[in-house]
Amino acid sequence: MDTISSKVNSALTRVEKKYGVLLVLYQRFEKTCRNIFAPASDNPERETMRSCWTMFLLAKGRVLQMEDDLVISFQLLLCTLELFIKRCPPDLLQPLYKSAIRKVQSPPTRTSRRSQSKAKSRPLEPEVDLQLLKTLCNENECNGEEVKNVYQTSFLAFLESLDSSKSPDFPQAKDLNQQYEDHYLKSRDIDGRLFFDGDETVLPSKLEILQEEKTPKKNLPDEEVLIPPQTPIRTVMTSIRDLRGDLTSNGDQPSNNLATYFKNCTVDPTQDVLKRLETVGQDFSQKFGETVGPHCVALGWQRFKLGVRLYYKIMEAMLKSEEKRLSVQNFSKLLNDATFHTSLLACALEVVMATYGESSFMTRGYNHAGAGNPVEKDLCFPWILDVVHLPALDFYKVIESFIKAEPTLSKDIVKHLETCENLIVERIAWSSQQQLDETSIIITWKEEGQKSAASTKQWT
Fold this sequence. Notes:
0% strand, elongated, Cyclin A, domain 1, 63% helix, mainly alpha, 2 domains
């Protein structure tokens, strides 16, 4: 009976998460469309908006296997809006987007009749308008490079699957609706069209919407509001922007300081480090694509590269701290320990995925309220441990050192890592008979307050 209850609870929680993501996306869609389309008495833009929303739902359903991924879903929504805006009559657009549209067709030139007939019969290839996409991203606080990559790796593949993808005109609303109807009947999931139809069963009350988007109060009438109203999309986009900003100065290769630490070792670990990263990177991106969607492998590589930058940054901070504490520069034993590197890299990747909202304990992974049985986990911890083939206790050992070495980690990320830590000790580690003794020792350390204060003492 407990097993049935756990499965039912897992299914309900998953549906709730998908509903929440769809609701947030639709609310942002409506708000964005008000900024895109010029108001008109007969509302001609409503049918365009309906087709746009339906195409987005179809793209989301075909591109993503993990449809509750808010970030990639939102990026797909911006890609869909870009496609419709550039095909929309300029009179229907607000000035900002009217000026952002690039001329798709070049000025007319003299051509032969034979060439003209060939040109008429050749459909236009779908091509991203970078200036328009940049405008959309700026208005929605989204990283333009990431959205462009989603367009080129995922959205174009979706467009090619549509019969009308190469047409310069709007996709036929009837065809889009039928294709989404087929997808909906096959998946038996939430019908996203109900949001656009204003169905009361899926839309919250106006009071709830106002409360969610409430702007912080001002102390004085003339005072500017410094903090915009927080929404789920704005929150995650801000977190991503902060993470990328913190890693701007960190490259995909070891810094000069870190390279010096490597060279000072009795055995230089540089080649082993680079080889390990290449192998793990391929495994990570492939498994990311298998979980999220087959056209998302390149997005997995993007996540991995961010993780590598964070991995190098934390490692350098740890070594500087130990050099100051011990007055030594030769960390050969530590830097030639493959488990240390894998643990540190896994922790960095977990931070990246948690920042993107792809690893969350709210709805996936181990059910804290249940009997401890793992449910469908997607990218949620401990997914990363399976990818890098790392025992949970080795990951556990590096968490505290990782947090100490990166004081700029947000409170939410620190809480996420602490939850991973607790989950390992309370459940995951006990699932392996071979690790029971070590788990008992770690718990004893924690209870007696004897856990090392030095960032790398556990490894040296």
